[in-house]
Amino acid sequence: MAEAYIVGAVRTPVGTKKGALKDVHSADLGAHVLKELMNRTGVDPAAVEDVIMGCVSQVGAQTLDIARTAWLTAGLPEHVPGVTVDRQCGSSQQSIHFAAQAVMSGTQDLVVAAGVENMAMVPMGASVPVGPEGPTAGLPWGPGWGERYGAQEVSQFRGAQLMCEKWGFKRGDLEAFALESHQRAARAQENGYFDREITPLAGLAKDEGVRADTSLEKMAGLNVLREGWELTPAVASQISVGASALLIASEEAVKQHDLTPRARIHTLAVVGSDPIYMLTGPIPATERALAKSGLSIDDIDATEINEAFAPVVLAWLKDTGADPAKTNPNGGAIALGHPLGATGGILATKLLHELERTGGRYGLQTMCEGGGQANATIIERL
Protein backbone atom coordinates (compact mmCIF):
# COMPACT_ATOMS: atom_id res chain seq x y z
CA MET A 1 0.00 0.00 0.00
CA ALA A 2 1.19 3.51 -0.79
CA GLU A 3 2.30 5.78 2.05
CA ALA A 4 0.51 8.96 3.09
CA TYR A 5 2.64 11.78 4.49
CA ILE A 6 1.83 14.88 6.51
CA VAL A 7 3.72 17.73 4.85
CA GLY A 8 2.02 20.67 6.55
CA ALA A 9 -0.14 21.37 9.61
CA VAL A 10 -1.43 24.66 10.95
CA ARG A 11 -4.17 25.92 13.24
CA THR A 12 -5.67 29.13 14.47
CA PRO A 13 -5.40 30.03 18.12
CA VAL A 14 -8.47 28.67 19.88
CA GLY A 15 -10.77 31.50 20.86
CA THR A 16 -13.29 31.59 23.69
CA LYS A 17 -17.03 32.06 23.35
CA LYS A 18 -16.77 35.81 23.97
CA GLY A 19 -13.24 36.31 22.72
CA ALA A 20 -11.41 37.79 19.75
CA LEU A 21 -12.65 35.26 17.17
CA LYS A 22 -16.34 35.19 18.08
CA ASP A 23 -17.42 37.34 15.13
CA VAL A 24 -15.17 35.78 12.49
CA HIS A 25 -17.40 34.04 9.96
CA SER A 26 -16.78 30.30 9.80
CA ALA A 27 -15.89 30.47 6.10
CA ASP A 28 -13.28 33.12 6.89
CA LEU A 29 -11.94 31.01 9.77
CA GLY A 30 -11.50 28.08 7.44
CA ALA A 31 -10.12 30.26 4.66
CA HIS A 32 -7.45 31.62 6.99
CA VAL A 33 -5.88 28.22 7.74
CA LEU A 34 -6.26 27.03 4.14
CA LYS A 35 -4.33 30.03 2.79
CA GLU A 36 -1.68 29.66 5.48
CA LEU A 37 -1.30 25.95 4.77
CA MET A 38 -0.67 26.68 1.09
CA ASN A 39 1.80 29.43 1.96
CA ARG A 40 3.74 27.36 4.46
CA THR A 41 4.06 24.28 2.28
CA GLY A 42 4.72 26.22 -0.90
CA VAL A 43 2.39 23.92 -2.83
CA ASP A 44 0.62 25.27 -5.90
CA PRO A 45 -3.01 25.18 -4.68
CA ALA A 46 -4.06 24.22 -8.21
CA ALA A 47 -2.48 20.81 -7.57
CA VAL A 48 -4.74 20.04 -4.60
CA GLU A 49 -7.27 17.39 -5.57
CA ASP A 50 -9.80 17.73 -2.75
CA VAL A 51 -10.52 19.62 0.46
CA ILE A 52 -12.13 17.54 3.23
CA MET A 53 -13.30 19.66 6.15
CA GLY A 54 -14.86 18.58 9.42
CA CYS A 55 -17.73 20.61 10.86
CA VAL A 56 -20.38 19.49 13.34
CA SER A 57 -23.13 22.13 13.39
CA GLN A 58 -23.80 22.50 9.68
CA VAL A 59 -26.38 25.27 9.85
CA GLY A 60 -26.29 29.03 9.34
CA ALA A 61 -22.75 30.24 8.75
CA GLN A 62 -21.58 26.62 8.51
CA THR A 63 -24.05 25.29 5.96
CA LEU A 64 -23.85 24.76 2.16
CA ASP A 65 -20.63 22.72 2.33
CA ILE A 66 -18.28 24.87 4.40
CA ALA A 67 -15.26 23.08 2.89
CA ARG A 68 -16.13 24.49 -0.51
CA THR A 69 -17.05 27.97 0.67
CA ALA A 70 -13.93 28.27 2.85
CA TRP A 71 -11.66 27.31 -0.06
CA LEU A 72 -13.32 29.83 -2.37
CA THR A 73 -13.33 32.48 0.37
CA ALA A 74 -9.57 32.01 0.57
CA GLY A 75 -9.32 33.02 -3.11
CA LEU A 76 -8.04 29.58 -4.09
CA PRO A 77 -8.65 27.86 -7.47
CA GLU A 78 -12.29 27.20 -8.35
CA HIS A 79 -11.59 23.80 -9.91
CA VAL A 80 -10.60 22.30 -6.52
CA PRO A 81 -13.66 20.70 -4.87
CA GLY A 82 -14.52 20.41 -1.20
CA VAL A 83 -16.64 18.16 0.98
CA THR A 84 -17.78 18.54 4.59
CA VAL A 85 -17.62 15.67 7.09
CA ASP A 86 -19.59 15.11 10.29
CA ARG A 87 -18.31 12.47 12.68
CA GLN A 88 -19.26 14.70 15.57
CA CYS A 89 -16.27 15.75 17.68
CA GLY A 90 -13.97 13.60 15.54
CA SER A 91 -14.98 15.28 12.28
CA SER A 92 -11.60 16.70 11.30
CA GLN A 93 -9.74 13.63 12.56
CA GLN A 94 -11.98 11.71 10.17
CA SER A 95 -11.03 14.25 7.49
CA ILE A 96 -7.41 13.22 8.02
CA HIS A 97 -8.40 9.57 7.72
CA PHE A 98 -10.30 10.14 4.49
CA ALA A 99 -7.44 12.19 3.03
CA ALA A 100 -4.89 9.55 4.01
CA GLN A 101 -7.06 6.76 2.62
CA ALA A 102 -7.39 8.60 -0.70
CA VAL A 103 -3.61 8.86 -0.93
CA MET A 104 -2.98 5.31 0.29
CA SER A 105 -5.41 3.94 -2.30
CA GLY A 106 -3.51 5.71 -5.08
CA THR A 107 -6.57 7.63 -6.27
CA GLN A 108 -5.28 11.06 -5.18
CA ASP A 109 -1.89 12.60 -4.43
CA LEU A 110 -2.54 15.89 -2.61
CA VAL A 111 -5.51 16.27 -0.27
CA VAL A 112 -6.25 18.90 2.36
CA ALA A 113 -7.76 17.67 5.64
CA ALA A 114 -9.24 20.51 7.65
CA GLY A 115 -11.79 21.46 10.29
CA VAL A 116 -13.70 24.51 11.45
CA GLU A 117 -16.23 25.50 14.10
CA ASN A 118 -17.37 28.84 15.45
CA MET A 119 -19.40 27.85 18.50
CA ALA A 120 -20.04 31.49 19.34
CA MET A 121 -21.72 32.14 15.98
CA VAL A 122 -23.30 28.69 15.58
CA PRO A 123 -24.04 27.30 19.07
CA MET A 124 -23.61 23.63 19.89
CA GLY A 125 -26.90 21.87 19.18
CA ALA A 126 -28.07 24.49 16.69
CA SER A 127 -28.64 21.73 14.14
CA VAL A 128 -30.92 19.74 16.47
CA PRO A 129 -34.61 20.71 16.08
CA VAL A 130 -36.55 21.47 19.23
CA GLY A 131 -39.95 19.84 19.55
CA PRO A 132 -42.62 19.08 22.16
CA GLU A 133 -41.77 16.93 25.16
CA GLY A 134 -41.28 13.25 24.47
CA PRO A 135 -38.54 10.67 23.90
CA THR A 136 -38.35 11.23 20.15
CA ALA A 137 -40.34 14.38 19.33
CA GLY A 138 -38.22 16.97 17.54
CA LEU A 139 -35.03 14.98 18.08
CA PRO A 140 -32.77 12.89 15.81
CA TRP A 141 -33.94 9.66 17.45
CA GLY A 142 -37.05 8.07 15.96
CA PRO A 143 -39.32 5.23 17.12
CA GLY A 144 -36.79 2.57 16.10
CA TRP A 145 -34.17 4.08 18.40
CA GLY A 146 -36.69 4.08 21.22
CA GLU A 147 -37.39 0.40 20.69
CA ARG A 148 -33.70 -0.38 21.08
CA TYR A 149 -32.58 2.07 23.79
CA GLY A 150 -35.81 3.22 25.41
CA ALA A 151 -36.62 6.77 26.44
CA GLN A 152 -33.50 7.30 28.56
CA GLU A 153 -31.50 10.52 28.28
CA VAL A 154 -28.82 10.49 25.59
CA SER A 155 -26.28 13.24 26.18
CA GLN A 156 -22.56 13.75 26.56
CA PHE A 157 -23.16 15.09 30.07
CA ARG A 158 -24.94 11.95 31.24
CA GLY A 159 -22.31 9.85 29.49
CA ALA A 160 -19.54 11.60 31.41
CA GLN A 161 -21.38 11.08 34.71
CA LEU A 162 -21.96 7.41 33.92
CA MET A 163 -18.21 7.08 33.37
CA CYS A 164 -17.55 8.63 36.76
CA GLU A 165 -19.84 6.07 38.34
CA LYS A 166 -18.40 3.08 36.44
CA TRP A 167 -14.74 3.95 37.03
CA GLY A 168 -15.25 5.39 40.51
CA PHE A 169 -14.07 8.94 39.85
CA LYS A 170 -14.99 11.65 42.34
CA ARG A 171 -15.15 15.40 41.87
CA GLY A 172 -11.71 15.86 43.41
CA ASP A 173 -10.15 13.47 40.88
CA LEU A 174 -11.68 15.42 38.00
CA GLU A 175 -10.63 18.81 39.37
CA ALA A 176 -7.05 17.69 39.97
CA PHE A 177 -6.89 16.55 36.35
CA ALA A 178 -8.40 19.82 35.11
CA LEU A 179 -5.91 21.86 37.11
CA GLU A 180 -3.03 19.90 35.58
CA SER A 181 -4.42 20.58 32.10
CA HIS A 182 -4.37 24.34 32.70
CA GLN A 183 -0.92 24.22 34.26
CA ARG A 184 0.53 22.25 31.37
CA ALA A 185 -1.08 24.54 28.80
CA ALA A 186 0.13 27.65 30.62
CA ARG A 187 3.67 26.25 30.76
CA ALA A 188 3.55 25.41 27.05
CA GLN A 189 2.37 28.92 26.21
CA GLU A 190 5.06 30.49 28.36
CA ASN A 191 7.74 28.40 26.64
CA GLY A 192 6.39 29.12 23.16
CA TYR A 193 5.60 25.48 22.33
CA PHE A 194 2.51 26.42 20.29
CA ASP A 195 4.00 29.35 18.41
CA ARG A 196 5.12 27.42 15.30
CA GLU A 197 1.77 25.72 14.81
CA ILE A 198 -0.48 28.77 15.24
CA THR A 199 -1.32 31.32 12.57
CA PRO A 200 -2.58 34.47 14.34
CA LEU A 201 -6.00 35.84 13.44
CA ALA A 202 -7.94 38.97 14.40
CA GLY A 203 -5.08 40.12 16.59
CA LEU A 204 -5.05 36.86 18.54
CA ALA A 205 -1.85 34.82 18.64
CA LYS A 206 -2.41 32.56 21.67
CA ASP A 207 -5.17 30.22 22.83
CA GLU A 208 -7.57 32.27 24.94
CA GLY A 209 -8.99 29.67 27.30
CA VAL A 210 -5.92 28.90 29.40
CA ARG A 211 -6.27 29.96 33.03
CA ALA A 212 -2.81 30.06 34.50
CA ASP A 213 -4.19 31.39 37.79
CA THR A 214 -6.89 28.79 38.39
CA SER A 215 -6.78 26.61 41.50
CA LEU A 216 -8.56 23.77 43.22
CA GLU A 217 -10.10 26.33 45.54
CA LYS A 218 -11.65 28.25 42.64
CA MET A 219 -12.94 25.04 41.07
CA ALA A 220 -14.48 23.98 44.38
CA GLY A 221 -16.67 27.08 44.28
CA LEU A 222 -18.52 26.00 41.12
CA ASN A 223 -21.88 24.24 41.18
CA VAL A 224 -22.25 20.72 39.83
CA LEU A 225 -24.07 20.38 36.52
CA ARG A 226 -26.81 18.35 38.19
CA GLU A 227 -27.60 17.46 41.78
CA GLY A 228 -25.75 14.32 42.80
CA TRP A 229 -23.28 14.48 39.92
CA GLU A 230 -19.49 14.83 40.05
CA LEU A 231 -19.26 17.16 37.04
CA THR A 232 -18.81 20.93 37.04
CA PRO A 233 -17.97 23.29 34.16
CA ALA A 234 -14.34 23.25 35.33
CA VAL A 235 -13.86 19.62 34.30
CA ALA A 236 -15.38 19.92 30.82
CA SER A 237 -14.04 21.25 27.53
CA GLN A 238 -14.66 24.89 26.74
CA ILE A 239 -17.03 26.28 24.09
CA SER A 240 -14.64 27.60 21.49
CA VAL A 241 -13.84 29.00 18.05
CA GLY A 242 -11.10 27.70 15.77
CA ALA A 243 -9.91 26.06 12.57
CA SER A 244 -7.16 23.68 11.47
CA ALA A 245 -5.68 22.33 8.24
CA LEU A 246 -3.18 19.64 7.22
CA LEU A 247 -1.81 18.70 3.82
CA ILE A 248 -1.59 14.98 3.11
CA ALA A 249 0.66 13.94 0.22
CA SER A 250 1.69 10.79 -1.63
CA GLU A 251 5.30 9.84 -2.29
CA GLU A 252 4.85 10.94 -5.89
CA ALA A 253 3.53 14.35 -4.79
CA VAL A 254 6.45 14.73 -2.38
CA LYS A 255 8.88 14.26 -5.25
CA GLN A 256 6.95 16.31 -7.80
CA HIS A 257 6.45 19.32 -5.53
CA ASP A 258 9.78 19.05 -3.67
CA LEU A 259 8.05 18.64 -0.29
CA THR A 260 9.52 17.53 3.02
CA PRO A 261 7.51 14.79 4.73
CA ARG A 262 7.18 15.55 8.43
CA ALA A 263 5.36 12.38 9.44
CA ARG A 264 3.72 9.39 7.87
CA ILE A 265 0.28 8.13 8.67
CA HIS A 266 1.16 4.86 10.37
CA THR A 267 -2.20 3.41 11.45
CA LEU A 268 -5.87 4.36 11.16
CA ALA A 269 -8.72 2.95 13.24
CA VAL A 270 -12.30 3.89 14.04
CA VAL A 271 -14.79 2.09 16.29
CA GLY A 272 -18.32 2.31 17.59
CA SER A 273 -19.07 2.06 21.29
CA ASP A 274 -22.05 2.27 23.66
CA PRO A 275 -24.07 5.35 22.56
CA ILE A 276 -25.49 5.89 26.04
CA TYR A 277 -22.07 6.03 27.68
CA MET A 278 -21.08 7.78 24.43
CA LEU A 279 -17.57 8.83 25.51
CA THR A 280 -15.80 5.50 26.11
CA GLY A 281 -14.79 4.88 22.48
CA PRO A 282 -11.14 6.02 22.79
CA ILE A 283 -10.38 2.90 24.85
CA PRO A 284 -11.33 0.29 22.21
CA ALA A 285 -10.14 2.60 19.41
CA THR A 286 -6.69 2.71 20.99
CA GLU A 287 -6.69 -1.07 21.45
CA ARG A 288 -7.56 -1.57 17.79
CA ALA A 289 -4.97 0.91 16.54
CA LEU A 290 -2.21 -0.64 18.64
CA ALA A 291 -3.17 -4.14 17.53
CA LYS A 292 -3.11 -3.11 13.86
CA SER A 293 0.17 -1.25 14.23
CA GLY A 294 2.11 -3.92 16.10
CA LEU A 295 3.07 -1.30 18.67
CA SER A 296 2.45 -1.24 22.42
CA ILE A 297 1.26 1.71 24.45
CA ASP A 298 4.83 2.03 25.76
CA ASP A 299 6.06 2.66 22.21
CA ILE A 300 3.95 5.82 21.99
CA ASP A 301 5.99 8.93 22.72
CA ALA A 302 3.09 11.38 22.94
CA THR A 303 -0.70 11.08 22.99
CA GLU A 304 -3.38 13.67 22.28
CA ILE A 305 -6.75 12.51 23.62
CA ASN A 306 -9.52 15.06 23.56
CA GLU A 307 -10.52 16.32 27.00
CA ALA A 308 -14.24 16.48 26.32
CA PHE A 309 -14.60 15.75 30.03
CA ALA A 310 -11.97 14.77 32.57
CA PRO A 311 -13.35 11.23 33.10
CA VAL A 312 -12.79 10.42 29.41
CA VAL A 313 -9.03 10.76 29.78
CA LEU A 314 -8.88 9.34 33.30
CA ALA A 315 -10.73 6.18 32.25
CA TRP A 316 -8.53 5.85 29.16
CA LEU A 317 -5.39 6.14 31.27
CA LYS A 318 -6.68 3.56 33.73
CA ASP A 319 -7.64 1.00 31.09
CA THR A 320 -4.71 1.41 28.70
CA GLY A 321 -1.95 1.81 31.28
CA ALA A 322 -0.58 4.79 29.35
CA ASP A 323 1.92 7.16 30.94
CA PRO A 324 0.08 10.28 32.19
CA ALA A 325 3.21 12.38 31.59
CA LYS A 326 3.09 11.59 27.85
CA THR A 327 -0.69 12.15 27.62
CA ASN A 328 -1.74 15.67 26.61
CA PRO A 329 1.71 16.88 27.66
CA ASN A 330 0.82 20.50 26.84
CA GLY A 331 -2.71 20.49 28.18
CA GLY A 332 -5.97 19.62 26.50
CA ALA A 333 -9.42 20.92 25.71
CA ILE A 334 -10.29 21.67 29.34
CA ALA A 335 -7.68 24.43 29.14
CA LEU A 336 -7.32 25.05 25.42
CA GLY A 337 -10.90 24.64 24.23
CA HIS A 338 -12.80 22.33 21.89
CA PRO A 339 -14.12 23.93 18.69
CA LEU A 340 -15.95 20.72 17.72
CA GLY A 341 -15.29 20.24 14.00
CA ALA A 342 -11.79 21.74 14.18
CA THR A 343 -10.46 19.82 17.18
CA GLY A 344 -9.30 16.68 15.36
CA GLY A 345 -7.02 18.74 13.15
CA ILE A 346 -5.90 20.84 16.10
CA LEU A 347 -4.89 17.73 18.05
CA ALA A 348 -3.03 16.35 15.04
CA THR A 349 -1.19 19.64 14.59
CA LYS A 350 -0.28 19.76 18.28
CA LEU A 351 0.87 16.13 18.20
CA LEU A 352 3.09 16.60 15.15
CA HIS A 353 4.78 19.68 16.59
CA GLU A 354 5.28 18.02 19.98
CA LEU A 355 7.01 15.04 18.37
CA GLU A 356 9.22 17.42 16.41
CA ARG A 357 10.00 19.45 19.53
CA THR A 358 10.93 16.45 21.65
CA GLY A 359 12.34 14.12 18.99
CA GLY A 360 9.69 11.49 19.67
CA ARG A 361 8.92 8.91 17.01
CA TYR A 362 5.34 7.70 17.46
CA GLY A 363 2.29 9.77 18.30
CA LEU A 364 -1.25 8.60 19.05
CA GLN A 365 -4.38 10.70 18.69
CA THR A 366 -7.87 9.67 19.77
CA MET A 367 -11.14 11.29 20.80
CA CYS A 368 -14.67 10.43 21.88
CA GLU A 369 -17.50 11.24 19.47
CA GLY A 370 -21.26 11.64 19.54
CA GLY A 371 -23.27 8.49 19.04
CA GLY A 372 -20.62 6.42 20.80
CA GLN A 373 -17.68 6.38 18.38
CA ALA A 374 -13.96 7.13 18.35
CA ASN A 375 -11.15 7.56 15.86
CA ALA A 376 -7.56 6.62 16.63
CA THR A 377 -4.59 7.68 14.52
CA ILE A 378 -0.93 6.77 14.92
CA ILE A 379 1.65 8.92 13.14
CA GLU A 380 5.38 8.36 12.83
CA ARG A 381 7.63 11.42 12.81
CA LEU A 382 10.16 11.44 10.01
From TrEMBL:
Span of domain Thiolase C-terminal: 260-381
Residue ranges constituting the Thiolase N-terminal domain according to the UniProt record: 5-252
Key word Transferase present: yes
Pfam families per record: Thiolase_C (PF02803), Thiolase_N (PF00108)
PROSITE patterns named in the record: THIOLASE_2
Active site location: 89 (acyl-thioester intermediate), 338 (proton acceptor), 368 (proton acceptor)
Gene3D superfamilies documented for this protein: 3.40.47.10
Molecular-function annotations in GO: acyltransferase activity, transferring groups other than amino-acyl groups
Keywords, alphabetical: Acyltransferase, Transferase
SUPFAM superfamilies linked: Thiolase-like
Signal sequence interval, chain numbering: none
Record-linked InterPro entries: Thiolase (IPR002155), Thiolase-like (IPR016039), Thiolase_C (IPR020617), Thiolase_CS (IPR020613), Thiolase_N (IPR020616)
PANTHER family, alphabetized: ACETYL-COA C-ACYLTRANSFERASE, BLR7806 PROTEIN
NCBIfam families, sorted: AcCoA-C-Actrans, PRK07801.1
Protein family per UniProt: Belongs to the thiolase-like superfamily. Thiolase family.
UniProt-recorded name of the protein: Acetyl-CoA C-acetyltransferase
Source organism of the structure: Thermomonospora umbrina
